[in-house]
């Protein structure tokens, strides 16, 4: 069918670039109805890569069977507590002040409307789970039909439009695949597909830092991760404890690492780069004028540097004056066998999400490739899952309505509708997460961190913190 100059064709064959959370979820959303092939630059899906997520709106978006499988691989998150150093003098039992204490189940039950509808399951339990990224990826892969292949060692290096119709993807091993009616870039924060969508070409990636349109926020993050011993199995629920320190913030939590497996523990430090004030460089020495890498591949600190990263984290623990009374953080740092160092970057949210080619095929972005956000609200994976379902539904709807004059549906309208549903919530989370990142790390040393702690406590008392948390957690895919 011809609409204007562009032929509207059904989307029968989709090439997905990236087998992370967004790519695998999109394959679930399209399975059986559209032919899907997934390509990833990595050599395999390694269950031990990365740390963990708290899934809420993302979990609620999965269809029932997948939701159950993901929940079984994780552990329910029961509570979030926020502590700072004791402001009113240490007592025998208390060497910290509690800024906020949230019981997740209670919090959701006390809310109403869309919060309870989406985040409480049939048994009245919260859809809120703590899961390692590796375990989530494993469940998503294992539950895909065998008709959907995942091809590894395929780093996308080119996209070309074929005269005969469709799009051909070229990879760094010299091979190519296609033609596809649609290519979806689920290739994360350093997306080659995004470059194509925005510039109509993919250039050789030049540096190990972020793409030129991303700005270093001056906030650094360190993750220490350790798998617990067999005794520490998935029992009851998990708690996340956040600590507001002097010039730094820490988070401790346990995550389900797959059904029946011991849990995985994580200690995270968020702190300001001393050579930056916000995004502005203040280093005097030329050698210090280096932005910390965004580390899109989550490359681990190499073995030779593991010990120095560990001792850096132990000194930071002291330096930040973190009230690690039960030595939870210290124990994870001492035993961690993987440590990741990342710089947090700000990605321009006003770029394009799709490009329709002259021959009627298209290239679209999903997940971090479309809406990369700072990690401080724990929403990156939740939003990636929701965007994947939203895009999947829009594609299926387009195929169904195409050819029926009553709808007058076009690819352009379909892709615009996808962006319209997903841009606003992801943009809203982006700026709140950025603000939170500076708030957590702000305050400086000694008495100067008191205003920050008081502000956070007040936000808790007036319900703003709860509102922000729940507002971000409610799924928005329609
Ligand atoms: C190994 C790894 C571990 C992570 N661990 C954590 C974590 O512990 N906590 C957290 O908050 N976030 C983590 N993240 C980021 C988090 O997964 C995302 O922010 C979020 O889930 C959105 O997912 P996504 O699928 O859009 O992107 P990602 O999960 O980043 O997945 C992108 C995928 O695309 C592939 N890819 C990239 N470029 C190309 C290319 N040119 N050609 C082919 N494939 C390509 C990558 O190999 C990757 O598999 C991790 C990311 C990675 C890659």
TrEMBL record:
Residues 14-207, 363-398 form the FAD-binding domain. The keyword Transmembrane does not apply. One of its GO terms (molecular function) is oxidoreductase activity. Pfam families: FAD_binding_3 (PF01494). Keywords: FAD, Flavoprotein, Oxidoreductase. InterPro entries: FAD-bd (IPR002938), FAD/NAD-bd_sf (IPR036188), FAD_monoxygenase (IPR051104). GO terms for biological process: secondary metabolite biosynthetic process. This is FAD-binding domain-containing protein. It comes from Fistulifera solaris.
């Amino acid at each position: 069918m011809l609409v204007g100059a562009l032929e509207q064709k059904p989307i029968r064959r989709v090439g997905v670039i990236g087998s992370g959370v967004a790519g695998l979820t999109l394959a679930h959303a399209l399975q059986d109805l559209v032919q899907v092939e997934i390509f990833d630059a990595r050599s395999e899906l390694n269950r031990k890569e990365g740390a963990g997520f708290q899934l809420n709106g993302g979990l609620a978006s999965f269809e029932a069977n997948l939701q159950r499988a993901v929940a079984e691989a994780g552990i329910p998150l029961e509570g979030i507590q926020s502590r700072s150093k004791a402001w009113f003098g240490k007592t025998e039992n208390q060497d910290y002040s509690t800024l906020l204490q949230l019981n997740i189940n209670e919090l959701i039950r006390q809310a109403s409307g869309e919060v309870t509808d989406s985040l409480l399951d049939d048994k009245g339990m919260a859809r809120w789970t703590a899961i390692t990224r590796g375990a989530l990826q494993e469940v998503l892969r294992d539950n895909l039909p065998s008709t959907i292949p995942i091809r590894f060692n395929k780093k996308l290096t080119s996209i070309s439009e074929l005269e005969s119709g469709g799009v051909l993807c070229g990879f760094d091993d010299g091979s190519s695949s296609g033609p596809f009616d649609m290519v979806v870039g689920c290739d994360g924060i350093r997306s080659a597909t995004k470059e194509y969508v925005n510039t109509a070409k993919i250039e050789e990636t030049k540096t190990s830092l972020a793409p030129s349109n991303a700005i270093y926020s001056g906030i650094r993050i360190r993750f220490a991760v350790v798998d617990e011993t067999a005794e520490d199995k998935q029992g009851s629920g998990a708690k996340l404890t956040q600590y507001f320190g002097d010039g730094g913030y820490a988070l401790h939590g346990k995550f389900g690492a797959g059904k029946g497996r011991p849990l995985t523990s994580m200690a995270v430090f968020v702190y300001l780069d001393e050579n930056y004030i916000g995004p502005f460089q203040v280093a005097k020495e030329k050698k210090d004028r280096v932005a910390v890498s965004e580390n899109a591949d989550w490359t681990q600190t190499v073995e030779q540097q593991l010990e120095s990263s560990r001792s850096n984290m132990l000194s930071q623990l002291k330096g930040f004056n973190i009230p690690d009374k039960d030595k939870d953080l210290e124990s994870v740092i001492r035993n961690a066998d993987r440590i990741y160092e990342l710089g947090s970057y700000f990605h321009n949210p006003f770029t394009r999400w799709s490009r329709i080619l002259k021959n009627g095929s298209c290239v679209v972005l999903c997940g971090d490739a479309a809406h990369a956000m700072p990690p401080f609200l724990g929403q990156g994976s939740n939003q990636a899952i929701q965007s994947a379902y939203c895009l999947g539904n829009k594609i299926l709807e387009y195929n169904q309505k195409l050819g029926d004059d009553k709808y007058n549906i076009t690819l352009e309208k379909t892709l615009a509708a996808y962006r319209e549903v997903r841009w606003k919530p992801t943009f809203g989370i982006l700026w709140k997460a950025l603000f939170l990142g500076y708030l957590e790390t702000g305050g400086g040393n000694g008495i100067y961190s008191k205003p920050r702690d008081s502000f956070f406590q007040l936000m808790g008392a007036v319900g703003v913190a709860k509102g922000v948390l729940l507002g971000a957690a409610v799924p928005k895919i329609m």
